[in-house]
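Sample intake sheet
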Amino acid sequence: MYAVIKSGGKQYRVQEGDTLKLEKLAEAIGNSINFDQVLMVANGDAIKIGDPYVANVKVSAEVVEQGRHKKIRIIKFKRRKHSIKRMGHRQDYTAVKITKIEG
């Protein structure tokens, strides 16, 4: 059984036991989260597709970690102008473990 959920403007295909890194959520480590925005649920050949969300279905998860991704290096360069600009960015994430798909 798997589901497609929406979180942080992105869509994720999840199964029970999966661990995934989502956009930063304001939850403490060990707390449980319920995702109500379920776009699709599939159990074998039985598939339910929402319009836009599937009714009476929720995905439960537990917060495992709060962290930051590796640094992304950004370089802006203008030729023949002696101009170079170096920047970096680290995106925050919340790692969650899917515990249950109900519905």
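Comment: DSSP finds no helices and ten strands in the chain. The chain has a mean pLDDT of 96.
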